[in-house]
Amino acid sequence: MAESLTEKADHIIGKAIFAAAEFQQFDQEQTDRIVEAVYKAGLKARITLAKQAVDETGMGIWEHKMWKNVIATQLVYESIRDVKTVGVISSDPVTGITEIAQPLGPIFAVTPVTNPTSTAMFKILICLKTRNPIIISSHRGAAKCTGEAVRICYEAALAAGAPEDCIQIIPSGSRDFTQLVMAHPQIALILATGGTGLVKAAYSSGNPAIGVGPGNVPVFIDDSADIPFAVSGIIASKTFDNGTICASEQAIVVEEKTEQKVREEFERQQCYFLTPEEITKVEKIAISAETMSMSPFIVGQSVAVIAQKAGITVPEGTKILLAKLDGVGKDYPLSHEILAPILAFYSAKDHNAAINLCIDLNYLGGIGHSAGIYANDEKTIMKFSLLINAGRIVVNTPTSQGAVGGTFNLLPPSLTLGCGTGGKNITTENITAKHLINVQRVCRRRINHKFADADQKVYFNEECDESVLTKEYHKNH
Amino acid sequence: MLRFNYNKPAKELTCYFTGRLDTIASFNLSDELYAKLNTLRGTDDPVVMLSDKISFDMTEVNYIASSFIRICVTVAKQVPRGHLSIVNCDPFLKKTFKIAGLDEILIVS
What we know:
The structure holds two protein chains of two kinds.
Chain A: H1 5-23, H2 28-44, H3 46-57, H4 62-80, E1 87-92, E2 97-103, E3 107-111, H5 116-129, E4 134-138, H6 143-159, E5 167-170, H7 175-182, E6 189-193, H8 196-204, E7 209-212, E8 217-221, H9 227-238, E9 249-255, H10 256-268, E10 272-273, H11 276-286, H12 303-310, E11 321-324, E12 342-348, H13 351-363, E13 368-374, H14 378-387, E14 390-395, H15 399-404, E15 437-443, H16 449-452, H17 456-460, H18 466-474
Parallel strand pairs in A: 3-4, 3-6, 4-5, 6-7, 8-9, 8-13, 9-12, 10-11, 11-12, 13-14
Antiparallel strand pairs in A: 1-2, 2-15
Chain B: E1 2-7, E2 12-21, H1 23-41, E3 53-64, H2 66-76, E4 84-87, H3 91-100, E5 107-108
Parallel strand pairs in B: 2-3, 3-4, 4-5
Antiparallel strand pairs in B: 1-2
Helix pairs in contact in B: 1-2
């Protein structure tokens, strides 16, 4: 008799539980040996996996996916290699507190179609580093390449002595089954990277979840910025893998006084400003009029393909399509997130109006995610940063690479970017190994003498107000 | 604290606020504001919708209390959707209105 979905889920999670039981006996050295072996295998397969991902999904550029694979393996490995994740991880003789890292248990990881192999390898590495078995559910559009990445990592892990079934992948395509696994009582944590629906499902499952959804990244080019430098950074970021990173720039905001200079620089660097008629045509193919979400058919596509789909003609070699818009929201479809080389462009009457526009864009589906600023004035950088609700505000840096970390700054390299409560996350940090451990604290006796030696009678005397209690607490003994 | 400019042909009322609109200041200005709106509508019944466009000019405001946000909501309910605009906000105030979720019912710029 065929297994029911529940039986199937029980079977897979049962295997992960056994793997977890074995894994928690490993010491740091054994764990690190496995992580090193998996990172090496993943790095070795970087080119094959990148090409497979592009072939299967039809999205992005293989050379860029190769770099994503490098970030997900080599850079992630370098960032977690020396981190203590097993047993005693810190001990302070003064406070008497010793911290012990314990694994969480089976982690259910959902990977997206836009960065399939890199996200899978990244999640595998941080799970193994923390002795957590991982069950991966890939996007159905990237099932083969993700499966191949999982196979490579699992074989390397086993060869290095990892527990059997420490890495598993479930068949893609069945939403019911995915939700069943997500909600299984023996899943310790869900690491969900993907669309809004998926992230919501993860949070609704009843299990702890770190779900990372969409962004809508505004970038302000201040008049103190080096404009050619800013434009080249934006192009490098927005064209990276045809814009598939959720931290890629979505809108450029400038002041009226710098608009002409910025426009000319974009044009000089082979970008194209759409006419109002062309904007209407691109809107129709890029954004669903009903849901205001981006069309999957243009995600990760080149400008040439987008232009052809929209029925417009743009100069050969155009890198990015820019649409000058007058507002933000449903009346301006291109003001929403689009993971393709299309950028909204705004000109504001003054500095405050420009920042206000960035706030509007930030709140249009991107709260807590990422934002960018090009400026050489520290006051402006800090003013912008205090007003924008973003986990990462990257300065004079391409936002795709800057938010992911590890290349242009010292943020931990990660393919899962926490968005804080704005994005319904518990953290704004770049997710890494430290988020996948339970830290136990052994608290040795250290008497608080101020409290212990205070005269308790005054606390029971209703006539003693706060000033008396404060004096009593702080008196010298 | 509060002054008005009414453009009769365009039926546009601009309310210029100044200073720190804390709870007490908001309370103090609310009577004056509502009285002005009643004059425009020709009745003191707030259920009667105003056809005028109203702008709250925030150029000289540096702080708003939740009671001022409530005033904005009250006025927004007395005019057709899109007829109340909060203009010339400093980004600090813009963020405050965003957090309050008022951008769904009125225009803040």
